[in-house]
Amino acid sequence: MRSFFIATFVGWFCAVGLAQATSSLSARGYTVLPEPQKVSLGTHDFTFGQNWQLKLDKSVAHGDAAVEALREGINSRFHMKLGASAGTGGVLTLRIAPGSVQIGKAQDPNKTLLEEQAYRITLHSGEITITANAGAGLFYGVETFGQLLRPKSGVLWLPEGSIEDWPDLELRLILWDDSYHLDRVDALKRDIRQAAFYKINGFVLKLNGHFQYKSAPAVVEPYALSAAELRELTDYGRHFHVHLIPYLDGPGHVAFILKHPEYAKLREFPGSNYEMCATNVASYKLLHDMYQELLSATEGVNFFLGTTQAGDYFFLPADDAYFLGMAHNSQCNEADLKKQLGSAGQVYVHFVD
Q: Per residue, what are the HEC states of the chain?
């Protein structure tokens, strides 16, 4: 299942790339996903190996995620470790210098956040430097460098030249649906880490009944993640510049809630457990409490009070509510409210904590 997902994910990027002109990197046999914004290559390639020294500028801590990713990636993929002292191969330097990398055209209007993710790689025989405006950019520069390394005849090769890169969008999401099966924490960490490798920085995790809700114990499925486990995943993701974003279905797609006798009274139609009654205040109270538990476990914010905090997100699907406004029965009367609204066709809901 996971291999299929990754193959599909990578295949999508490849399809996008084939639709465009062949890049200078791919023409030389190098692959980077997604394709960097600016690439300038020299005429020669050069070798890279464990005889190179890793040098950290004073701006980069030894425990920085970029340093960890570089060491981990080279070791796991190529069974190689870089030296801490001068070697015969050359020097690879990591550096953070605010304002050092200028970004170009992008869809996202928030240039400040895009600049934090920008980086530059200069590649020369004997000297490689990865420079970024902030920690996120340095991490992405390291991931690009790791993808660039091309094994051939038992030797790793790199192209001479330079790469400047920044994202087109500040937030880049994938949806990870764990509502019908459940990955354990270690597996989810691998999934998050692989997403980060391809510069995905939003991991939308759909658990539904696979979370231990205190406010709705009846919906909790076996082996559900605890709040502590979800917080552990959140911290792990943030270390690698990935936002773990909780996802909870509602008011449709909620058979995992409404199938339980405790919540049958919230059904839009008594005989169907698909959709919640939108005019029942208890529906909002239940969802509110479940949302808040997920937000707390991911160190989120109070969505309903309108407070915001950079870096914290919640995914509210609200899709496929096919029968909204149709119910007119003993426990749910939406049809009359629909008539009252008339041709305006708009509903404004005020949430109160």
A: CHHHHHHHHHHHHHHHHHHCCCCHHHHCCCCCCCCCCEEEEEEEEEEECCCEEEEECCCCCCCCHHHHHHHHHHHHHHCCCCECCCCCCEEEEEEECCCCCCCCCCCCCCHHHHHHCCEEEEEECCEEEEEECCHHHHHHHHHHHHHHCEEECCEEEEEEEEEEECCCCCCCEEEEECCCCCCCHHHHHHHHHHHHHCCCCEEEEECCCCECCCCCHHHCCCCCECHHHHHHHHHHHHHCCCEEEEECCCCCCCHHHHCCHHHHHHECCCCCCCCECCCCHHHHHHHHHHHHHHHHHCCCCCHHHCCCCCCCCCECCCCCCCCCCCCECCCCECHHHHHHHHHHCCCCCCCCC
